[in-house]
Design a protein that fits this description.
There is one protein chain. The chain has 187 residues and is an alpha/beta fold. The chain has a single domain, classed as Rossmann fold, CATH 3.40.50.1240. It contains 5 helices and 6 strands, in the order αβαβαβαβαββ. Strands 3-2-4-1-5-6 form a 6-stranded mixed beta sheet. Strand 5 and strand 6 form a beta hairpin. The radius of gyration is 17 Å and the shape is globular. The relative contact order is 0.20.
């Protein structure tokens, strides 16, 4: 009978530790100077895009679902609530990334280096190099937000984030980044 109580205590401790880590990550972001690799919000079911999709024609792509739109809005609210400064928001050209950026931050510029690498490995080295070069040399009072895809972020950070998850990196110059932490949609 004591096992359920111990399991509950362990679960509460884990939740408390995660909340503390998230609070510390928000404090760091408030100081600026970080690179945030953000995977787009939750999408309609599926993997990749439908056959015959046309980049930029949102009707042919796999898009955010209602939950993904809501989590993107929550993320933006968390950035504002935590007074996190944003220097620039760059997004993949895919509609689900552009929508995530727009809903969360209200502004973005597209950057093809952030485009989806799923099934497109011929571009992986060039895109990875471009992202690492720009992100590794980032300096600023705010933070650089890069909205992309899991397949692209894993090439840059070595981490496959969940949809709507942030991977926070510290620029180390010369195309290098250091992992600082991860967080799901700011909640």
């Amino acid at each position: 009978m004591k096992w359920p109580g111990a399991a509950l205590a362990a679960l509460l401790w884990a939740c408390s530790a995660a909340a503390s880590a998230d609070a510390e990550l928000w404090r760091k972001l408030k100081d600026g100077g970080y690179v945030v690799l953000l995977r787009h919000g939750l999408t309609e079911p599926g993997v990749g895009d439908p056959p015959g999709f046309r980049l930029g024609d949102c009707k042919t792509e796999r898009n955010l679902n209602a939950q993904g739109r809501a989590e993107s809005q929550r993320l933006g609210e968390a950035f504002r609530r935590n007074k996190v400064p944003i220097a620039q928001v760059l997004s993949s050209e895919w509609c689900r990334c552009r929508d995530t950026a727009e809903l969360a931050f209200g502004r973005y510029e597209t950057w093809p280096a952030l485009n989806n690498l799923f099934g497109r490995h011929e571009n992986a080295a060039a895109q990875r190099s471009a992202i690492l070069e720009r992100a590794g040399r980032f300096r600023g009072a705010g933070n650089l937000i890069l909205v992309s895809h899991g397949s692209t972020i894993v090439q840059v950070a070595g981490i496959s984030p969940g949809m709507g998850e942030m991977v926070v990196m510290r620029p180390k110059g010369a195309g290098q980044l250091e992992l600082v932490g991860r967080m799901k949609d700011g909640t």
